[in-house]
Amino acid sequence: MTDNSDSIKKFDRVINVGVVDDHLLFRSGMVSLLGDFDEIKVVLEASNGRDLLDQLDAIVHRSKQGKNNVPDVLLLDLQMPEMNGIQTTMFLQEEYPEIKIIILTMHNEEEFIFDLLNKGASGFLAKDKTVETVMDAITSVMKDGMYVNEQILKAIVRGSQRKNHISDLSPKTPDLTEREIEIIQLICEQKTNKEIADFFQLSTRTVENHRVAILAKTGVKNMAGLVLYAIKYNLIKVAK
Q: How far, in Å, are 51, 52, 70, 175 from residue 55 at the CA level?
């Protein structure tokens, strides 16, 4: 588990969070738990996707506070009336692509994970997780653009095989150095730039440069793409 307090200190302001869930008790409980963290500010609560979009419209277009109160991260329930998590994610990706979305669900509905990540979600959590795990997910999507755990890795493997995404990747491995392969493996284990730098006794800037080179060589654009790449070329092993 990441040290949430250390990871979040890297941001120059608190993280604005929205909680969207049609179950009032769960939503209120989550808001209360997140309120115990000074690094988090809950700026929005909504009961479904339609309610969320109405509130975002009011914040952006009619409120004097403007975009300062738009959530950085949304905790978004998958199963909701009016507009469910899938429909809401697709709309947000078009209208508010800067908002990071973490999908919440009562069940481990793995079949949805791969498609939701492709539709713009940044992470996925079952509702039985601890608040510390939720905080870890929030800080991960803010720092790295995505939250990945073992469940998500397995879902990416199965989903990509189902839709032939792995076989569609370039058949030829680019000329990666041994150090770049090691860094890919650590990235897929959710290690931060600082953790990777400490592991290899390098500067954080050097690790950032390696990341840029890796993305350029592999031609992938995000964490999901890098995981798919690593799976295809057996750089990481995930139990099937």
A: 6, 5, 9, 48
Burial status of residue 64 (CB atoms within 10 A of its CB: 0-12, 13-18, 19 or more): exposed
* Confidence band of 240 (pLDDT split at 50, 70, 90): very low
Q: Compute the average pLDDT of residues 153-182.
A: 67
Token pair in block for residue 240: 């099937």
Taking the C-alpha atoms of residue 34 and residue 196, their distance in angstroms, rounded to an integer, is 28
Tokens standing for residue 44: 């929005």
With H, G, I as helix, E, B as strand and everything else as coil, classify residue 69: helix
Tell the residue number behind the tokens 């600082």, with chain if given. Answer: 194
Name the residue with higher pLDDT: 107 or 231: 231
Name the token pair of 106: 């009562």
What is the average pLDDT across 45-51?
95
Closest-CA residue to 84 (of 109, 110, 105) = 105
Give bridge partners of residue 61 from the DSSP assignment: none
67, 43 Cβ separation under 8 angstroms: no
Can you give the pLDDT at residue 9? 41
User: For 123-153, what is the HEC assignment?
Assistant: EEEECCCCHHHHHHHHHHHHHHCCCCCHHHH
Determine the pLDDT at residue 157: 67
E-assigned strands of the chain?
A: 15-20, 40-46, 73-77, 100-105, 123-126
Whether this model's pTM surpasses 0.85: no
**CA 127 to CA 106: how far, in whole Å?**
5
Q: Provide the 8-state DSSP code for 22.
A: S
Q: What is the SS3 assignment for 46?
A: strand
Mean pLDDT value of segment 67-87: 88
